[in-house]
Write a structure and sequence with these properties.
598 residues; alpha/beta; Aminopeptidase; 4 domains; 8-stranded mixed sheet; 5-stranded antiparallel sheet; 19 helices; globular; binds zinc ion
Length: 598
């Protein structure tokens, strides 16, 4: 085929410029043997009508592919609630797979920043590989997720076109089954009827042993085995820059909802998160339009936002990672895309409407492949920028936690507006002699041509009042009434990679003495957005359709501060502080008496 010839030539040409080219060439160029196709393995194609493989078959297939392919390494990331091994396929070029620990270390250094300066960050970004997570099967009745994952992995390990080879060179892909138990249950339930017309996914029990569908509301709590497995990969082991979480189903009259998301985004997130989301999303939508795949909507096309923390793809935002969610129609039992008149009008959030029609499962598999390849394409093209900005966000977080900062929230903006109104709107912001805004200037000044603005003293004294500063850290005293629960809370932070310290001796901060064993969570760390979000109240904006109109329902939880929900006693510390603190490795022990040297 033309594709493989081109690839071979490119590799050969690249190799000629290097001494020892043939040594370098050897691992990457070694041909693979035959790769078993899904049809050869299961007796049907992925996406055939009325067919679903279960997890036992899935596992057997991935174990076979890992033996056959030199582009895939299979890892068990832990066991599920029902004791099945949860599998992750690591897919990349053979040369990259030979140096996985090296690339993992680069991603970790950029994520955690720890002493990495800008020059080193640039060098690491140049050298590193884009780490991209793609999952499937979290919500098990959304059967498209696991099926598209099988087809995606098969194509990545078997195709030899230049684009696939570029993905493999630039990216390390973490393909993860998010809920093996659920796939076994739902697929067995679906396939049990010999009469294909009776097949359905309406199982009469939860598809995750304990929490069913809420397995996607556990990622800030890590209560379940599967959540702990996933969080360990995301926040302690691999630190992917992009995390793509597959769901089903699409809004009526469309095939898929894909990012970007509607407002609000959470004000604790780094500003690079929403704009890099746009970058990746643009790659997805442009590929759909270019491949002639209509019916993909975004933003106002559904209710999904980036506000809340706790879903697989949303907790990642608070760790400076780009989280993607798609919601796609598709079922092995053919379905119909209904005629919804409004969905026929092209607009910014649905540029390419789709005609009503009968829809087959394989078509949804093809849409999922397009989405996955679009994500890998932009990860490959923007590899160095994504890696460097990953470091930049962590660096920003550490800087913000090391000085006085203020977080604007809807209630604070409302409060300053009320204060301005109450004072009779006197004064405006004007340019002072040194180019700085001054107070008490007349109306109509040159820097507020589109409105006079308000006196800058309200910005300085009200919005940025000293008492409203962001916390530099939080102290959880070890003598509080329910210290074991405080310890459980601390462990939810440790599961998602937050740095926590424990006092080895009594210490005093701002005149208050805390006993040994107290926990300290400082905000000068890469994952500061997650720390703030777990200790501070969420201030969701009033989201009304129009003044006096009905509220728009938030996508999911609007308020969820875990420290409040668990009744943890803590002090917010607004100034820099230190003490006899040791970093906790692993999980915290609930026994305060166990502190050595206390
Ligand atoms: Zn779902």
């Amino acid at each position: 085929m033309l594709g493989s010839t081109t690839t071979a030539r490119r590799r050969f040409t690249a190799g000629l410029g290097l001494a020892g080219a043939f040594v370098l060439l050897a691992p990457g160029a070694r041909a693979q043997g035959t790769i078993t196709s899904p049809r050869q393995q299961f007796g049907f194609n992925i996406g055939d009508d009325y067919k679903l493989p279960n997890y036992t078959q899935f596992e057997g297939y991935w174990r076979k592919l890992a033996k056959e392919s030199n582009r895939m390494k299979l890892v068990e990331i832990g066991n599920t609630a029902e004791g099945r091994p949860q599998l992750m396929a690591i897919i990349s070029s053979p040369a990259n797979l030979a140096r996985l620990d090296h690339y993992k270390a680069i991603s970790r250094k950029l994520a955690l920043v720890d002493g990495v300066g800008e020059t080193e960050a640039h060098a690491l970004a140049r050298e590193g590989k884009a780490i991209v997570w793609i999952d499937g099967g979290l919500h098990a009745t959304e059967v498209l997720g696991a099926s598209q994952l099988i087809e995606t992995v098969y194509q990545l390990v078997s195709k030899n076109d230049p684009e696939t080879m570029r993905f493999l060179d630039d990216c390390i892909i973490l393909a993860v089954h998010a809920n093996p138990d659920g796939m076994e249950l739902v697929s067995n339930w679906y396939m049990k009827d010999a009469d294909t017309l009776k097949r359905n996914t309406n199982i009469p029990r939860l598809y995750q042993k304990y929490i069913g569908h809420d397995n996607n509301r556990d990622f800030y709590m890590s209560n379940q085995a599967e959540t702990q497995n996933v969080n360990h990969v995301l926040y302690q082991d691999w630190f992917p820059q992009i995390v793509y979480n597959h769901h089903q189903t699409g809004p009526a009259g469309t095939v898929m909802f894909a990012p970007p998301f509607r407002d609000p985004f959470n004000y604790n997130l780094d500003a690079l998160i929403p704009v890099e989301l746009d970058l990746v999303a643009a790659s997805m939508h442009s590929r759909f339009e270019a491949e002639g795949k209509p019916g993909v909507t975004m933003r106002s096309g559904s209710s999904y936002s980036t506000w809340w923390n706790g879903g697989l793809r949303t907790t990642v935002y608070f760790h400076n990672q780009i989280g993607l969610l798609t919601e796609t129609i598709g079922n092995p039992t053919p379905q119909v895309i209904p005629f919804i008149p409004e969905q026929q009008l092209p607009r910014a959030d649905l540029p390419y409407p789709i005609a009503p029609q009968v829809w087959h499962f394989r078509q949804s598999i093809e849409y999922s492949l397009t989405a996955n390849r679009a994500v890998l394409d932009i990860a490959s093209r923007e590899r160095e920028n994504l890696l460097f900005n990953f470091w930049r966000m962590g660096r920003n977080s550490i800087d913000r936690g090391s000085r006085d900062t203020w977080t604007a929230s809807p209630s604070r903006i409302d409060a300053v507006k009320k204060k301005i109104d109450a004072d009779g709107r006197v004064g405006a912001t004007a340019m002072g002699a040194e180019g700085r805004p001054v107070t008490g200037a007349p109306v109509g000044d040159p820097i507020n041509q589109f409105g006079r603005g308000a006196d800058v003293k309200y910005y300085n004294d009200v919005l940025h009042a000293p008492a409203l500063r962001d916390a530099r850290g939080y102290i959880l005293p070890s003598d509080q009434a329910d210290f074991p629960t405080a310890t459980k809370f601390i462990n939810t932070l440790l599961h998602v990679g937050v740095t926590v310290h424990r006092a080895t001796a009594p210490f005093t901060v701002r005149g208050k003495t805390y006993p040994a064993g107290s926990y300290v969570v400082k905000t000068a760390q890469a994952f500061r957005p997650h720390v703030l979000d777990m200790f501070e109240p969420q201030d969701h904006p009033n989201d009304f359709a129009y003044p006096g109109g009905p509220p728009k329902r938030p996508y999911d939880n609007a308020g969820y501060t875990l420290a409040f929900q668990m009744g943890v006693t803590f002090d917010r510390i607004l100034d820099g502080f230190d003490g006899p603190f040791e970093r906790i490795t692993g999980l915290a022990s609930p026994t305060p008496g166990s502190v050595a040297g206390a």
